[in-house]
Amino acid sequence: MKTPEDFLVENGLPEVRDIDRDSLVAAFMSEMERGLKGEPSSLMMIPTFVGVDGKVPAGSKAAVLDAGGTNFRSGIVAIPPRVENRMNRPMPGARSPVDVESFYAALASEVKRVLPGATAKKIGFCFSYPAEATPDLDAKLVRWTKGIQADGVVGQYVGKELLKRLGGGEIAIVNDTVATLLAAKATEGEKTYSSYVGFILGTGTNCAYVERNTAIEKLPGLDPNGKMIINAESGSFDKAPRSKFDLAMDAKTATPGSNPFEKMISGAYLGPVGLEVLKAAAKEGFFSKAAAERVAGLSSLETMDFDNFTAGAVKEGRQNPLDEIFSARADAKMARRLSLPVFERAAVFTAVHLAAFVIKTGEGASAAAPVAINADGSTYYKTRAIQFDETVRRELDDMLVKRRNIHYEITPQVDDAPMVGAGIAAML
Ligand code: BGC
After folding, report:
1. Residue ranges of the chain with pLDDT lower than 70?
2. Ligand 1 within 6 A of CB of 205
3. pLDDT reported for residue 287
4. In a 3-state reduction of DSSP, which class is residue 57?
5. Which amino acid residue places its CA nearest to atom 1 of ligand 1?
6. pLDDT for res 53
7. How far is residue 419's CA from residue 122's CA, in Å, rounded to a whole number?
């Protein structure tokens, strides 16, 4: 009889000890190089025109918008870092399609609400989608991710369009990875870091890091002595092997083929990948007849439920469909055994992802000045099925410290890092 592990491997979901970390890191590095040169690459490697050397003015307050995954937040960011007058609404276009005017109307109304409390001239805007950055910190949306339905906005300069509807003003738009990097840099105190990586693992995933201007060959003419933050858009990395479950899930998304790496590790997708695993396993005969029938009837699975079930945890006030489907003990045990590798792979891929960016900074040679990794996002910090953070650290200790003598530190989490970072970008 085939084991569940054999079944997963046969379908392309590896046991974590067999993941070839070195060749994945190498593939990441070569995609980064190509992207920086402007050659075809799955990594956009977007120059952001944001450096890390500015001094944040104490006492300043900036009006800030934060368009993340499914949430749209607004508030006032004050220094020392805190968020005042905050509001959290659903992201326009997350639940149902919106047209261009309603999209900007939702943004404009929040700016009007918070602007009177600001002292900084610029509005800060954390915009967590792939967008080309301009030297004056506007953002041209390349495409939506995370299932946002607002087609008319694609290709627009989001800042310019918003300011038009506000009747003027100034704005600084940064990606959430860039904002997270800036926020941690601004709150590091007396620590000495040789470089920085900003990392998000929430609904989606992505990395930003600090690069020498001379390496950004697709943008000649920059100050050769300077450095700037690069937004890699690493969720679209396409050199990591995908399983049959990933392909089946991807085919059902609104954006098949796009962001393959993100679809293997981030919060919007772990549940849906898990659903494909459980459905295929049911067909293969791994569950009782009753459970198999119930799995076949399940049309969607949220990551939160998949995670809680795999962790054997109950969330107060929330019914988990998997608890009912796998009500028999043997079924539940089997289902957990099949589910765990989805999370284990996500953690190892996360570590590979981070290792590649730390190496790319070219820093971290001394333990006295490690490369800071500023991590944010619900999937990174709230996953319960495995000890996510510990697994990532263990992997990084091996890949970076032991084997390459490169030192890193995952910095303490900064509260509201994306908003705070966007506020800082507006103040600098
Ligand atoms: C977006 C990135 C963002 C990441 C994390 C991805 O889907 O393309 O711009 O940084 O999610 O929020």
Report:
1. none
2. yes
3. 98
4. coil
5. 129
6. 87
7. 14
Q: Among the atoms of ligand 1, which is closest to the Cα of residue 259?
A: 7
**81 phi and psi, to 5 degrees?**
-55, 115
Element (H, E) at 208: strand 205-212
Q: Is 174 in the pocket of ligand 1 (CB under 6 A)?
A: no
CATH topology of domain 1-48+187-414: Hexokinase; domain 1 (3.40.367)
350 near 265, Cβ under 8 Å? yes
| Residue 307 beta carbon below 6 angstroms from any ligand 1 atom | no
Q: What is d(CA 352, CA 369) in angstroms, rounded to the nearest whole number?
A: 21
According to DSSP H, which parts of 50-121 are helical?
Answer: 100-114
Token digits for 32? 């980064």
Residue given tokens 């410290």 in the structure block? 401
End-to-end CA distance of the chain: 63
- The Cα 413–Cα 133 span in angstroms is 26
Please say whether the beta carbons of 179 and 126 come within 8 A: yes
3-class DSSP state of 235:
helix
Our answer on whether the CB atom of 263 is closer than 6 Å to any ligand 1 atom is no
What is the spatial distance between Cα 178 and Cα 413, in angstroms, rounded to a whole number? 15
Q: Is the dihedral of CA 141, 142, 143, 144 positive or negative?
A: negative
User: Ligand 1 centroid vs 199 CA: distance in angstroms?
Assistant: 10
Cα–Cα dist 311/291, whole Å: 19
Q: 195-252, pLDDT tens digit by residue?
A: 999 999 999 999 999 999 999 999 999 999 999 999 999 999 999 999 999 999 999 9
Q: How far is residue 361's CA from residue 378's CA, in Å, rounded to a whole number?
A: 25
Q: Are the C-beta atoms of residues 119 and 61 closer than 8 Å to each other?
A: yes
How many C-alpha atoms does 137 have within 13 Å on its Cβ side? 26
* Residue type, position 90, single letter: P
In CATH terms, the superfamily for domain 61-174 is ATPase, nucleotide binding domain (3.30.420.40)
Contacts of 273 (CB under 8 A, 6+ apart): 245, 246, 249, 263, 264, 342
**Contact call for residues 279 and 295 (beta carbons, < 8 A):** yes
Domain ranges of the chain: 1-48+187-414, 61-174
Atom of ligand 1 nearest to the CA of 146: 7
Q: What are phi and psi of 173, to 5 degrees?
A: -105, 130
50 phi and psi angles, rounded to 5 deg: -110, 125
In angstroms, how far is CA 60 from the centroid of its own chain?
A: 28
| Ligand 1: residue whose CA is nearest its atom 2 | 129
pLDDT reported for residue 316: 84
Distance CA 79, CA 63 (A): 12
